[in-house]
Design a protein that fits this description.
Elements: H1 2-55
């Protein structure tokens, strides 16, 4: 009886350890994904900033034709 209880606890512990390892793998992957998205977001923001700076002088400041 006592052995069965210990065996059941060992089985539960093994499942919990596996589950924790899976959660850790997901967390690591999500961290990598977030860092990649941050870098892409920064790069896109810089490109937008460059486009705005480079096109400001190209757009004439005049009234639209319907005025």
């Amino acid at each position: 009886m006592e052995e069965d209880r210990i065996t059941q606890l060992e089985i539960k512990l093994a499942y919990m350890e596996d589950f924790m390892n899976q959660i850790q793998e997901v967390a690591v992957q999500q961290t990598k994904d977030i860092e990649k998205l941050k870098a892409e977001n920064k790069m896109m923001a810089e490109k937008i900033r460059d486009l705005i700076e480079n096109t400001e002088g190209d757009i004439p400041n005049r009234k639209p034709p319907h005025y």
